[in-house]
Every structure is written in structure tokens, then in C-alpha cells.
Amino acid sequence: MEQMLLGASPAELRKRIRSGEFSGPTGGLARGHVQANLVVLPRAWAFDFLLFCQRNPKPCPILEVTNPGQYMPLATAKDADLRTDLPRYRIFRNGELEAEVTDVTHYWTDDAVAFLLGCSFTFEAALLAAGIRPWELAAGQNPPIYISNIPTVPAGLFSGRMVVSMLPIPAGQVARAAQVSARFPRAHGGPVHIGRPKAIGIQDLMCPDFGEPFVLKADEVPVFWACGVTPQIAISQARPEWAITHAPGYMFIADMKDSELEE
Amino acid sequence: MEQMLLGASPAELRKRIRSGEFSGPTGGLARGHVQANLVVLPRAWAFDFLLFCQRNPKPCPILEVTNPGQYMPLATAKDADLRTDLPRYRIFRNGELEAEVTDVTHYWTDDAVAFLLGCSFTFEAALLAAGIRPWELAAGQNPPIYISNIPTVPAGLFSGRMVVSMLPIPAGQVARAAQVSARFPRAHGGPVHIGRPKAIGIQDLMCPDFGEPFVLKADEVPVFWACGVTPQIAISQARPEWAITHAPGYMFIADMKDSELEE
Description:
Chain A is an alpha+beta fold. Chain A has seven helices and eleven strands. Chain A has helices spanning 3-7, 10-18, 43-55, 120-129, 135-138, 174-182, 230-238, and strands at residues 33-42, 62-65, 89-93, 96-101, 112-118, 145-151, 161-170, 193-194, 220-226, 242-246, 252-257.
């Protein structure tokens, strides 16, 4: 990754993404600023999805919801365009993944409602600042991700199991990791589970549903957080006529600072 | 008030209210249990109102939203009926207050969506437990209520100014009061303003918009919290074809405990 990108502001990064100059994953960029999961749905599905988020705040913590048809967020960033400012999008038709694209201008409708949801990068940054450095964060890898057996609370046709990400935390730092992440309820908050993968339906910790296999070190405890991929499972269950999401790892870079989410 | 009522459980109180045996204000009843503001709207207005709540969490902290047509809450109470279990309701037509009634069974529609919002009783109980005893709480009075000049963030046609309640807090306890109430974000959370009524558009503190005139003592600071009457202003602005709310002071008594709202 270019050094220039690492120092770029959120507005500069969005401009480069919009122009096609940058189309990679956004992890590690615009440090200190919030990144967001994106879900876009037709107005007719928006109440049920907003209710799904309200009932499942850990996997779906709302940062902002746009008015129908509006593609410029108001609370999280200025002069942004949600149709062009993410490096990669997913298009779903009737719950099936149809395509991955870099611009959704032609998919956007007059009644499209965009949901921006908090992302794990915010609490991961807080963990790093607290001296908690799980290997995959340090190495810039994505954490392993699992489909747990924890049910979400349904709303309308939206339902499904909760997706979780796992960080291996040194045993002596687990309590601190829980405490530090809990300060960011709008970025998934505290862990949903600590220590017993089978208790949440994960049979083989070493083989995540997404991400690379890995080995847990002897002094590490697996700690699980709700993951912003959960809505994509709920969309595949609900089968709305269309939906747009970010592609995992290719997030919306907001102007909002991580510190603004601390509670 | 009967001594028997003061010791009654939430389920017992709802039964007495449902039967018409009790129809008074609910302040002081079922101590330790959550009470809730109620807003009911047709499904077609529910997305905008849910979005209004999401954008204005201090005046409109969501405890639960029912599925369309359902009058039995799931998260806040068991075996409750939102059509009969509040002692007094308000019926709005096109934003105008039409009637106050004790049963809304005949107003409930197949597409009615009920919103239960947290109430100040929860943080007031926490203040009392922390040794902070403003006069009107001790005396069982309702606090003075003002229409501030703080704008709510609009959603659809819902908009308007924030309604606030005021407690006169001894100067030495103001910081503690802010801290204690902030632990209950789903019951209006921390104050929205401390100390300068004119800064939020309150010209004469002694003459509230609702409630009795009073005198601030020399050592007291006026502390303002967002109030659950705010949605009623927003409804009068939006003018939905119909809406049902609780009558101020006549709340829904939930099974949920205040302690479950502490964060």
C-alpha cells in the first residue's frame, strides 16, 4: 500500500476511491476515523431492517440511516457519495449474491435507504491503544470469522444466525479487552462470548467459515465479537428484491472519529 | 394510594389496570421495574418514527417495538396487552388530540406498530438510590416540563423541539447526578443541559410549560433531561391519520427491571 494512502484524510481517500484510483480493502487507512458497514435496501424493506438493527444492536449498531433516495450521509461524513465512495460493493437479488462492483450509481433507486453500521476496526484500534495486540491485527490480517449458533432476534423476514469474529487474546488481557471494547457499543461493543467456542456452535475453532486457518497459542483465550457480516446472512434469509452491501473488508471511510463513538 | 398497590408486582398492577380497578398515574408503583412511554402508529408511519427515535435517542430511547398488529410486548413484559394495560391513553387524529381513554382495543388496527420508550422514573430511582433527592421526587410530584429550543433531528415528517424535564439538584451533587443518570441511556441517559435555562430557550424557569410553578433554592442548579413527551410534539407536527400514546404520567408498567437498563 502506498505510503501516501496511509497518511490521507478520509475525504482524500473517498476521492481516490470515487475516481477509481484506489480499489483495495480499507483496513489500516484513515486511522482514528470510523469505518462503516453498508446495507442499502428499498424503502418497503427499510422498516423491517431498521427494526432488525434495533433488536440486534451488537451485530448491527447503527451509525446513520439516510432518508429514502439520499446517497449523501449527513452525520458520518460531509460531501460523501455512498454510490461511489466504497471500493467494492455486493449486489444481492432475491437474497442471492449477483455481483461485486466498484460503483452502484446505476443500482441506486429513488427509494433506496442506506444503513451505515459500526465496524470492528474502531474497537480493534482501542484494543491496540490499550496495549492488546492480537497477532492478526498486528500483521494486518483479517480476523477469523464464524457463523455461530446464536440466533438473531427476527424482524419481519430478517432473521438468521449471528456472525462473529474472533481475536485470540492473551489470558491476562481478556478482562481488559472486554472492558475496552464495551466502551464502543456503536462498534459492536463488548464480546458476545469468551472462551468456549462449542458453546456458541463453533465445532472447530481452527477452521473459520471465513478467513485463514490458524493455531491458538497456549496462553491465548478465544474472544468473540458480533460481526457486521451478520446482515448479509439476514438478507439472504429475507430475500428482498434487491440489496446492496459493502464487500467484506471494503468499508465506507467516514469523517467521524473513533473517539466520537466512545461511551 | 392503597398500600396494596404499592407492594403489587407489575403483573398484578397490569391486571388491576386492565380490569378498571386502578386508573391513576403510575409514578411510585412497582419500584425497581421499568415504566415506559407508549407511541402507536400505523405501519406506513412506522419507519419514519423508528428513524426519528434512532436519530433522537435521548428523548426517544427504544425499549421495544412490536411487530405490526401485535399488542403483546415480548421483551419488556409477559402476558401484557398494550391495548388495555395502561391506565390512560391519548388518541390523536391528524396530529390533534382527540380524546383520552382507558382502553384502546377498538382503536387498534391490524397494522398498528407499538413503540415502548424508556421513562425518567428509571434514572430518578437511580438518583434517589445515590442519595440525590430533589424536592419534587421526594414529595411524589411530577417535575416541571419545558419545551426547549433544542431541535430534534427530523425523520420523514416527524420533527419539532425537544421537551425537557428539570430537576433542581443541590450544586454539590450535580456532577454525581450527571454520572448516575448517564448509566441509563435507555431511560433518557445523562442531562441534555445543566445550569443555563436561557441557553436552551427557557425564558422563565419558574413557569414551566407543564407542571406547577416553583422556586429554585439558592444552592440548587437546574438540570435538564430529555423527556418522553417529545414524541407527542413530533406527532402533532407530522399529523399521521391516527396515533395512540400514553397520557403523561400514566405509563406502561413493564416486568423488566431498572437494573437491566444499567450500562
